[in-house]
Amino acid sequence: MTEIRSLAETREPEAATDWWRSSVIYQIYPRSFADANGDGMGDLPGITARLQSLADLGVDAIWLSPFFKSPQKDAGYDVSDYCDVDPLFGTLEDFDAMIAHAHELGLRVIVDLVPNHCSDQHPWFQKALASAPGSPERERFIFHDAPDAGLPNNWESVFGGPMWTQTVNPDGTPGQYYLHIFDSSQPDFNWHNDEVREMFRDVLRFWLDRGTDGFRVDVAHGLIKSDGLPDYVVDPAAASMGGTEELAPWWGQDGVHEIYRDWRKVLDEYEGDRVLCAEAWVSPLSLMAKWVRSDEMHQAFNFPYLSCSFNAAQIRATIDESLQEFAAVGAPSTWVLSNHDVVRHATRLALTEDNPQGEGIGPLTPNLPDPAIGLRRARSASTLMLALPGGAYLYQGEELGLPEVVELPDEARQDPTWFRTNGKRYGRDGCRVPIPWETGAPAAGFSPTGNSWLPQPAGWEDYARDVQSATPDSTLNLYISLLRLRRNHDLGLGTLEWLDTGDPDVLAFKNNDVVVVSSFAGSERELPACTIDLTVIASSAPQPSERQIAAESTVWLRG
């Protein structure tokens, strides 16, 4: 580790121009990354204190999930002030110190922006509740007169239950309804309103002026709803955030693109190649590519790739489609396997039952996966992903091989999904448990007092960073090696060329001077003929011999 640390400390930041085309960006979920003050909640000073570990890992940038002022009913995705830091996480001065240290280490900083909705405690919404129907204050949101019976339409919230909540008039009589795609504490903005658009331009500039390198845009396929708000019933097997080819009338409407063209103009006012990345759960990829046309966003999360099962044919088809569709608009593809909204891929890739995004898993989930199989597949999938051209996203803890936490007590759960479905869906808490840093330390090094806003399971410290740093074949050291090789061989800016393997369960491709072979088979296989005279330079698992590849593993080779 000494040599790796030295390399990380001395490396130069990538050139500003188009750095995002090949970047590896590490998602920090602030609540669960590192707690400096001991209250059990991760914070900005905790992030600052641990940034060196991310420079050592070899990533190019960090993305922070929301740390704005918030009642925290949806873990900060319910914002009450877009231009201040919630005291849970620190202060604006703490943010400035964090971004300054990140830049010293050659790391760029991406901030999570939540434009679809705010908190019901936001001053604008409080003014709307205190104002009359039809008032300018209410026009900033989506209010609807109460029908004679029922609700304004049949839309169901992503978190369960109706997408409408009725207000109460000052005289105590029932008032208008307001729309919320998510929780009732998260009213949607009316993006046809000029005041809303101007407010968010100001928010962009506020954080750009503080040195922020860009924004990950939450629910970037929301914001605009279909005219007339027509009734619509979602397929119960669909992911909660969309992703089906038939778009719900609150997802993927054409009007969102005008908004992002406007935002792109704001970012282009600034030096340093600031970026926008879309969280747009839409399908097919040809539709997703609309978010990254040359005058809109720079990147879009590749959710079809994240949604692939551990299957060679499906993976290859998705890679081909991704490279084709993003290249058609001049954008890089991105690759991602885990984030704060999905079951961690060290568990998900071994699930044998359907598990729609947002549903989560828990103690009563049938056929819970074998952890060893999950980790083996996760290491292989990550090794394949980091060899692909384009940008890549990592979610905190995946470099430690963290599994989904299944055995969370009911009373500890905090995801709105759990409450709005009366416990029928577990939600996302299992991927948000605070990560382990050191064995034998309070809360495995997450917090100096041992406090933890979600309980860490027994055995969690076995995944700790200090243990893995000292273990040559650990998942952490695998990631460090892969990221170093990815940079040295310029794989992010390379070109993928498929190679014949003669085996439907084995994929092989060349990117620059590296050949990648990935086996999805349940038993060892012979390495394909295209690898003769090549030497393994990285491997997700020990290989049985020089000419064989282990079951469910990936190797990188070079002449």
TrEMBL record:
<comment type="similarity">
    <text>Belongs to the glycosyl hydrolase 13 family.</text>
</comment>
<dbReference type="GO" id="GO:0004556">
    <property type="term" value="F:alpha-amylase activity"/>
</dbReference>
<dbReference type="InterPro" id="IPR017853">
    <property type="entry name" value="GH"/>
</dbReference>
<dbReference type="GO" id="GO:0009313">
    <property type="term" value="P:oligosaccharide catabolic process"/>
</dbReference>
<feature type="domain" description="Glycosyl hydrolase family 13 catalytic">
    <location>
        <begin position="27"/>
        <end position="432"/>
    </location>
</feature>
<dbReference type="Pfam" id="PF00128">
    <property type="entry name" value="Alpha-amylase"/>
</dbReference>
<dbReference type="InterPro" id="IPR045857">
    <property type="entry name" value="O16G_dom_2"/>
</dbReference>
<protein>
    <submittedName>
        <fullName>Alpha-amylase</fullName>
    </submittedName>
</protein>
<dbReference type="InterPro" id="IPR006047">
    <property type="entry name" value="GH13_cat_dom"/>
</dbReference>
